[in-house]
Design brief:
With 183 residues, the chain is of the alpha+beta class. Strands 2-3-4-1-5-9-8-7-6 form a 9-stranded antiparallel sheet, with helices on one face. It is built from 4 helices and 9 strands.
Length: 183
């Protein structure tokens, strides 16, 4: 399968940008920031170019979500650090950014028989309860990803730490379905 069929939908990453944050100061200075301590302990801040959202915590930790690739994560976290420095909040230089999860989608361009796939893959790595959820949940050990398989041939891969993990997860599914004659 070519990577062009794999589409990154969301990259979630975390970092520590400071020893601590005054969230009230940030919500005051960042026009679009939202902070309601009663509802959620962190501040929510959205940016549009590239598109991403931040969860900012008093601990100095930041979670970035919604980016479409890993380089955008680095770009928006860098911009966020500059903006924080701009309002007088000292940030950690060159923070370690850890990708926690990548969600991607792909299309096998085939109609799939999920009952046959469930039997063929064996019950120890799959969950398939069509009354509860229309997809088959397949847990792959290497790479450590979860692939949702739908009868339309569409796949959703989650849990990858790199785009290559997601691509390999799709490849594993494709190879196994091919070997079972179900593709």
């Amino acid at each position: 399968m070519t990577d062009s069929n794999l589409k990154i939908e969301n990259v979630v990453a975390s970092t520590k940008l400071a020893e601590e944050f005054d969230l009230n100061l940030i919500v005051e200075k960042f026009q679009t920031a939202e902070y309601n301590k009663q509802k959620f302990p962190g501040l929510v801040y959205r940016v549009s170019d590239p598109k991403a959202a931040f969860l900012v915590f008093t601990s100095g930790k930041v979670v970035c979500t919604g980016a479409k690739n890993v380089s955008d994560v680095h770009t928006v976290i860098g911009s966020m650090a500059k903006k924080l420095n701009g309002i007088g909040i000292k940030t950690i230089g060159n923070p370690e950014i850890v990708v926690q999860n990548i969600v991607a989608s792909a299309d096998l361009k085939a109609v799939l028989n999920l009952n046959a796939i469930a039997i063929g893959l064996g019950l120890e790595n799959i969950e398939y309860e069509p009354e509860q959820f229309p997809g088959l949940v397949y847990r792959i050990g290497d790479p450590k990803v979860v692939v949702l398989i739908f009868s339309s041939g569409k796949l959703v891969v989650t849990g990858g730490k790199t785009p290559a993990d997601c691509a390999r997860g799709v490849e594993v599914v494709r190879e196994q379905l091919d070997n079972m004659g179900l593709l």
